[in-house]
Amino acid sequence: RFCNAIDLITCMPKKTKIPLTESFFHHLDRLPEKEGAFEVLRYSFRTIASFYGFSKISFSAIDNARVYSPLIRAGLLSERPPVVLKSATGSDVIVRLSPSLNILRAYRDHKMNDFSQPVKVFVEDESFSFSSRTDQPVSRRDEETLVMTGEAGPIAEAQIVQVIWNS
Length: 167
Fold this sequence. Notes:
alpha+beta
């Protein structure tokens, strides 16, 4: 469901109003004892992806909500409702929802179809969405994503499976 929010609290999927306290986002923190384990996994993924010719791509944590509004209106993002906020200029911005969607947007906006094919990229990022839990209204996911565009068929799929298998 698309939230035309003035602030994050009034944009909860169930119209539940939760007070914005000092610790509202603290559940999203990851402390050192867990960060070390995540870094080992990220290093392994990054090393293997690079070995197979995937290049890292990064995105801003916020994007123009208009780009994603057709997906939102069509109900394609209802499983993980996006966090949409008003910027200081009054336009809607969406907090990173999915690295895969960012890659598709970048492919179109930066005319990556003109790059040498196949385009092989990986993303190590986190995404945010509304949660159904009232004690943790915003959820965070760490995602490692591989995308290969410009080559169809079993060879491309096999290479992605091989990278995942070796991670």
